[in-house]
Amino acid sequence: MKDQLEIIMNESQRQPKWYHNLKYLMVGLFFGVLFVKAEVISWFRIQEMFRLQTFHMYGIIGSAVVVGMISVWLIKRFRITTISGEQITFTDKKFNKGQIYGGLMFGLGWGLTGACPGPLFAQIGIGATVVIVTLISAIAGTWVYGRFKDHLPH
After folding, report:
1. Of the four listed, 27, 38, 46, 121, which is most buried by Cβ atoms within 10 Å?
2. Which of these, 113, 115, 4, lies nearest to 57 by C-alpha position?
3. Residue 150 has pLDDT above 80, yes or no
4. φ, ψ of residue 81 in degrees (nearest 5)
5. If you average pLDDT over residues 108-133, what whole number do you get?
6. Looking at residue 92, what DSSP letter applies?
7. What is the per-residue burial (b if ≥16 Cβ within 10 Å, else e) of 105-114?
8. pLDDT tens for residues 23-33?
9. Are the C-beta atoms of residues 114 and 57 closer than 8 Å to each other?
10. Helices 131-148 and 117-125, interaxial angle, to 10°?
């Protein structure tokens, strides 16, 4: 009976052993090193981008968008499944004016701090400990949104 329940159970509902999470640590370290080497976490590169002085960051962001588009197309075209065999689905999302406000606030914060959520940990990892203030602010902003999302324009 237990074997039958395990077959029916969704992969995401299983509680893996602690060492199964090491793969996420390794991927995180890999991307952290990649971000540092590509200068994605450089405050100066981010400022150059917002001042329209260099193409460096636009090239990185643009290539990530292209890779994402190709990946989604391939997943849909060949009906690729997860490792555990589950179908990958995409759902359409409706546009609303709150996305514009959120995008403007995100961009303003990114321009002022020189950091977006992805590279925050890599910036802290290289010793830019002042970024901890940005990390705490990002966590606080996420909490505030979660607390008041029912009262915001969606």
Report:
1. 46
2. 115
3. yes
4. -110, 170
5. 86
6. -
7. eeeebbeebb
8. 989 998 998 89
9. no
10. 150
